[in-house]
Write a structure and sequence with these properties.
Helices cover about 50% and strands about 5% of the residues. It is built from 6 helices and 2 strands. β1 (about 55-60) and β2 form a beta hairpin.
Length: about 140
């Protein structure tokens, strides 16, 4: 399965933000320290999360980030999409005529990986950020 640190860190940072931003904006430095993620990496992720309207920023000494909408309205798949992450179990392109091993036919396990891919992406589509922070994963 392909899930890069970009996707994992974005979910971790958003879960942290959802947990700690209820009373005040949260700085990226705080998230960086709690989650052990590089501050410069978080800055890159939050630019994308802000562009996709998942977070909003506030300037000033008490500034930081908050969620743009409630955690109950943010799917994990929204987070992956925002940071250009694609969760895949297939090596080949789904609609390509070429197979996983660059032959003209698909490998004999292609349909297994395709089905797994569908299950994983369905899980991320159904799971809300709120479910993650409340540990209610289905």
């Amino acid at each position: 399965m392909k899930l890069t640190t970009k996707g994992r860190y974005a979910v971790m940072a958003m879960a942290d933000l959802a947990s700690f931003s209820k009373e005040r904006p949260v700085s990226l430095t705080e998230i960086s320290l709690r989650q052990n993620i590089s501050l410069s990496y978080l800055e890159q992720l939050f630019i994308k999360l802000k562009q996709k309207k998942l977070v909003k920023s506030m300037r000033g000494s008490q500034g930081g980030y908050t969620l743009e909408r409630p955690a109950s309205q943010i799917k994990l798949s929204n987070i992956f999409i925002a940071v250009d992450e694609e969760v895949r179990t297939l090596n080949c392109k789904k609609d390509s005529k070429k197979g996983c091993n660059n032959k003209l036919i698909k490998c004999n396990a292609h349909f297994l990986w395709d089905k797994l891919d569908q299950h994983i992406n369905s899980f991320f589509e159904k799971t809300l950020l709120e479910d993650l922070i409340n540990k209610r994963l289905k």
